[in-house]
Every structure is written in structure tokens, then in C-alpha cells.
# Entry
Amino acid sequence: MRKIFMISMMLLFGAIAFTSCKKDVHVLDANVAPVSKLNLPADQASFSLDPKSSSGIVFQWDASSTQDLVLYEIAFDKPTGDFSNPIYKVLSNGSGVQTQATISQKLLNTIAFTAGIASSSTGTLKWTVIVSKVANKQLSTSSRIIQINRPAGFAVLPAALYLTGTATEAGADVTKAIAMKKVTDGVFELYTSLQPGTYTLVDKNSGTSTVYSVQNGTSVQLNGSTTVTGNKAVYRISIDLTTASATLTQILSVGFWSAPLGKITFMLPYVGNSQWETNTTIVIPQQSYGLDSRYKYQFMVADASGKQSLEWYGSKNPDNPDPNSTTLPSYFYMYPVDNSQFNYCFKLLPATNNKNCTVNVNFSPAIANYNNTVTIK
# Structure
């Protein structure tokens, strides 16, 4: 009996163990219901885009009737497209779980560009919503049209911009092209000389590049080149690809302006590579209150029409102490300032008085900040 009892118990425990090892099998329902109603923007809504604006455009729709978690994407296509190969897709807010998406005007401008809508023109985009669960995706049963007014400028902005050509200081070898200083996204500037010849702007100095050209001294377009005639001259070339605009300002002269004397005491000729430099004997003016070495720089410039004006560059501080051997380089960083006689001036190192010095103004794009130096020879 004992043996029979033991066998019975072993069979019972085995049955219990087998039963406990069984797992409930839950079959995943991969079916997903499409979005049936789009809410915002209204069909045929019109938008004049400003890529620099911080306000986005809100797209909204009703939720899918699917009970489980789903992901939403907005799909954009050309008006004749069927979304089988949309030109652009954007996840909704909340990494795809919300029933709305806020799309920046900058991105929408890029989408319009991808759809073939040219800058400074109006075109249409078609949009809908794709809902998905696992690998199953469903297009909304409806779609809408929006009108897009694109601004002037380029939707895709290069990270860098270079100047190259026979009219430039570096010549036509693109590998030696001059890098422009990036001011902000899409905005570049360069202080350089131009001589008779041609030049272009490129986004790379090797490989395949996008080419831009300045037209009529005021606008930028894709491809082409710019022809320079007349005498060699120094310019500040300002390029804004967000508005496809260009400004060429001629730098006629750079003068060392003594604050206590209230006048320019010497000129700095342009020496190339975005720099002005001269060798001169520095004389710090003696005033009734002592030596006064305050100075800044006066730039005489001319616009495209030839109209002349003055620009002033000096310290960012209204007043400064005398520099010494431990003074940081940032003391000599150049900033646009006003024409006041004594404010926003640098001061000369006292040891430079009555010494032959090299005075340099450096607006090279290769340095973090434009600066000036006065160095004893």
C-alpha cells in the first residue's frame, strides 16, 4: 500500500507541475483602424511661412478607434500623389502617440522645397495621417490640401560657405577656397579683396558642392558666377541664404582713432587675409591729467550706390583699465561701437609709448572673434 501511495503522490505532483508550467497564450491583435477625421488645418488653409519664426503650425485629427497603443505620422505629398511614396513624414507629438503634431515653419518650408515649390512662390501640399500598430499601417480615409507661400531664400542651409574664383585672393583652385565666417544659420560674412575676374560661393571645398552666385550685388541664386570689373578693392561680403540676399560693402579705409586727440593719427592699409596692418611709432598723448592712450578704429565704407559712411569698432566695455602682460586676449576683441569720443575704447600697453610697433586689425573668419593687436617690434 505504501508503494502504491507513493506512486500516486508522484503522479499527482507531476500533474500539478505540468499544469503550473503551462502559460496562457495571448494572441496579439495587429488590426488597426484608420483615422477617419482630420481637424486642423482646415482644407485649403493658406500659410505664409517665416522659417525664423518660433511658432509652429498645428495639425490635429480624431483618434483611431483601435483600443491598443498606436503611433501616428503625418504624411505629406504632392497634390497628385497617393501617399504610396510620401515626400515627407513627421511623427506626431509625444513621440508619435498624440493626435496632433506641431510642425515648425522652418521644417514646413523644407517640405515645400522638397515638393518642388520654389522660393518666393506659392504651391500646394497634400497631407494625411498614417496610424500604425506593430507592422500594420493604415492611411486615413481622408486627406487635405494646404496652400504654402514660401519666402525668398533657401530651405536647405549649408553648414559652411566658401568663396572661390579668379577674382578672389585664393584663386580658382576650390581646394584653396576662402571660408566665410558663419554668423548664424544661413548667414555668412567675409572681409576680403576682389579683383577683376569671376567668383562663386560653394558649400564645400572638395567633392561635389552646391554652387551659389551673387546677382546684381543684392541677391543670391543657385549656380552661375559673379563677374568683377574695375579696380581691386576691399569688401565686406554679407550673404543671407535664408532670404537669398547679398550685401557688398566696400571698405575704403581703416584709421587708428585717438580718443584724447579726437582724430585719426594713422591709417592701416589692407594687407590681405582679412587684415589691416602697419608699422609705426606709437606716441601716447600727454594730457593735463597724465598719459591718455584710449583708442578705437574708424572704418570708412561705401554701399553699392557709392554712398559713404563711417563705422566704429572698439571694446564692448564703456571703459577699460590699462592692459598689462597678463591681460587676456578678449580685452582686444573688436565690436561695433558708437562714435562717442571716450567710450568703448581700448587702451595701449604703457610699454608701447615711443616704440616702433606693428598695429594689426584682424577680421579673419578663421578666428573666433575679430581683434586688434599693438606689438612692439
In short: The mean pLDDT is 92. Residues 162-243 form one domain.
